[in-house]
Design goal:
Elements lengths: L1 E4 L5 E4 H20 L7 E9 L2 E4 L13 E5 L6 E11 L6 E4 L11 E4 L13 H4 L7 E2 L2 E2 L4 H4 L17 H11 L4
Antiparallel strand pairs: 1-2, 3-4, 3-8, 4-7, 5-6, 5-8, 6-7, 9-10
Amino acid sequence: MEYATTGRERAVENAAKREVANGMKQFRAFLDKLMQTGGNGVLGSVSSFASTTWTMATPPGAALVYVGQTIQVYDSTLTTNRGTANVVAADPISATQTITVDVNPAGLTNGDVIVHDGLSGAQPVSLFGIKYHQNNATTGTWLNLNRATYPVQLATPRVNAGNAALTPPTFAWPLTKCAKLSGSTT
């Protein structure tokens, strides 16, 4: 499909190419949002709702949804799929952290979670995001490796500053521990 315009110059724009380019931008933005999840597709949780305006719990608030997105609502245990809704407005910047949807799924309650469209069944699985990989748990599995078998190697290094300011000495012990694990002498 092409549109032609007249003027001093004759221009022809390929609308199909433009739509594919715009679609790829949206796809990349969605993947960036999905990479902020823990591998289950949870984009946020509903802390309260009034009619079709939902206040999202922070973090992440309303930051991981976009206008026009189809979302699914699950109960807080990710076992019951309550249905779908389309996001018609989102306010991820202000303190309100609200989204407005076209319709509330049946049985919506405070604490329900929203996931991206296309997931099914209890305990849905999505792309493994940062929250999946950055984890210092010592039980469970990571990419089918048992954390109990490799507790040091699979735990993400963390620094607990005890609500104090972060200073260079705060990081000395974790860096030394990481160097020993990797075999580095620096």
